[in-house]
Amino acid sequence: MGFYEELFAPEEDKRNKIKITKSLDQNLGKVKEILNNCDDVIYREFSVGKGQKLKFATIYAEGLADKNLVNEYVLKNLMILARMTDPDVNTIREKVYDLIKDGVLSVSDLKEIEDINLVVDNILTGETVLLIDKWNKAIVIASKGWPMRSVSEPETEAVIRGSREGFVETMRVNTSLVRRRIRDPKFKIKQMQIGKRSKTDIAVLFIDEIVNKDILKKVVRRLKNIDIDGILESGYIEQLLEDNWRSPFPQIQSTERPEKVVGALYEGKIGIIVDNTPFALIIPTTFNSLLQSVEDYNERFLIGNAIRILRYVAVITSLFLPSLYIAMTSYHPGMIPTELALYIAGSRDGVPFPSFIEAFIMEFSLELLREAGIRLPGPIGATIGIVGGLVLGQAAVEAGIVSSLMVIIVALTAIAAYTTPSYSFAIGFRLLRFVYMGFAAVLGLYGVMLAFLITLTHLCNLKSFGVPYLTPFNIYNISLKDFKDTLFKAPLHKMKKRPEFIAKDDKDRLVDHVHDNNKKRM
């Protein structure tokens, strides 16, 4: 058994096996007993052959199986074409599977099973099961065909230049979107099921010869250790796999964009696609990768760097700006230029609250508006966000509850926070902003620095599947080549190596670029 076969070997089914007998009536009775009161399960019994007829039965779940496929290519062939054949029932019994597989059913995927539990599992996953009297096996016919949303542009990760395709809720469609971008036999998709009751399909994606096998072992081991009733969304997997559940920062990256998953796979990372959700997971992740966007690579070198630097500045602004305002106005007004200090004092004339309460009221109101805008229908939500912000801000200033400068600071903070590409990452900074404001209210600038040092210490200790979260900034023996895609992105033709902290085997991704050849010709 090879490395991957042993790693992804399915765990032993702990249920008591219920063997399929040679009596069709007994087998149907057992299935109906297990699927009692399941009115969406369709049973169709019929006979095949001339003279003494052989009884058949098909079972499928309405809405999960493709009814047209079942009717046209299974029932029609068995009930009409098979009746026109010459062999009598005894001949049919002797070679029933070969006859059905090779001469009757015009479907691409068939398999045999011998356990009633597996019959039920396949029915509930959208397959059609064929039971035959006098035969102690069942035939599973691939017939999945549930309704699904068409591929469309992701709403949470909009870009100007990039693919307009986004993941949908069907796992096999999502894997095909990735497979279409990696036409390499070394690209592997290994499937498993998680959830005692939901039996949700999970696909683990990686590229052999590039993937870090140590990280892959950790991922698969943790997946197999999950023992839960059901997996409803990839967020369940994320929470059950991450190293430190107390951290406000995500240790697993989520995305709706297939090209982002593909880019991560080319670096040696691992992708996880969960059925019933359009969000895929990328493992491992780092602080640096969560602040990167697809456009950084699709645009030219200078443009991509300008956008990335602006994003880093915006993240720092959104985290520190309210706490610095509180600290400077409450504890260190002498550090502010005189004219600005007088303006701030004038704008705060008549405000009954200290700067911390003033900032807290505005930030809390902004979070309420943000949450309301998300929950309301699209057009109404956008209107509530814009109109609500303007009305509340103007009303609060006129009522003397907050100063006009505070409204500007909160607006700048909100705009800067929206530049973070990862929604989960941005939420962590939103929570930390309130913590920083509390430290600033108690200790001034010393409190802000203390909060920053605590955050930095936490980030230095945080790991994602053994990879330090601040990589490559906190690894003393890291190669300088790994810094080509951090605060600044090197020109594409200079990024010839994969990140060494992930890829261990095949480290070359760009060899003999045309720029180098042109230089040689000159």
Short summary of the structure?
The chain is α+β, with helices and mostly antiparallel strands and 522 residues long.
Comma- or semicolon-separated keywords:
alpha+beta, elongated, 5-stranded antiparallel β-sheet, 4 domains, 522 residues
Draw up the topology in text.
Elements: H1 3-7, H2 24-34, E1 41-48, E2 54-61, H3 67-81, H4 89-94, H5 96-104, E3 110-113, H6 116-124, E4 128-132, E5 138-141, H7 171-179, E6 187-194, E7 200-207, H8 213-224, H9 234-241, E8 253-255, H10 258-266, E9 270-274, E10 280-283, H11 287-290, H12 295-298, H13 301-330, H14 338-347, H15 355-375, H16 378-399, H17 404-417, H18 423-443, H19 445-461, E11 463-464, E12 467-468, H20 514-521
Antiparallel strand pairs: 1-2, 2-4, 3-5, 4-5, 6-7, 7-9, 8-10, 9-10, 11-12
Helix pairs in contact: 2-6, 13-17, 13-18, 15-16, 15-17, 15-18, 18-19
Description:
- The two termini are 53 Å apart.
- Helices cover 47% and strands 12% of the residues.
- Strand 9 (270-274) and strand 10 form a beta hairpin.
- The protein has 20 helices and 12 strands.
- The longest helix has 30 residues, at 301-330.
- The chain has 522 residues and is of the alpha+beta class.
- It folds into 4 domains: 14-141, no CATH class; 171-285, no CATH class; 299-468, no CATH class; 480-521, no CATH class.
- Strands 1-2-4-5-3 form a 5-stranded antiparallel beta sheet, sandwiched between helices. A 5-stranded antiparallel beta sheet has the order 6-7-9-10-8, sandwiched between helices.
What oligomeric state is this? single chain
Query: How many domain units?
Result: 4
Distance between the termini: 53 Å
Spatially, the strands of the biggest sheet line up as 1-2-4-5-3
Helix coverage percent of residues?
40-55%
Low-confidence stretches: none
Question: What is the count of helical runs?
Answer: 20
> Over all CA atoms, what is the radius of gyration?
30 Å
Question: Major sheet: size, sense and barrel closure?
Answer: 5 strands, antiparallel
Number of strands: 12
Mean of residue pLDDT? Answer: 85
- Shape annotation: elongated
The helix-and-strand class reads: alpha+beta
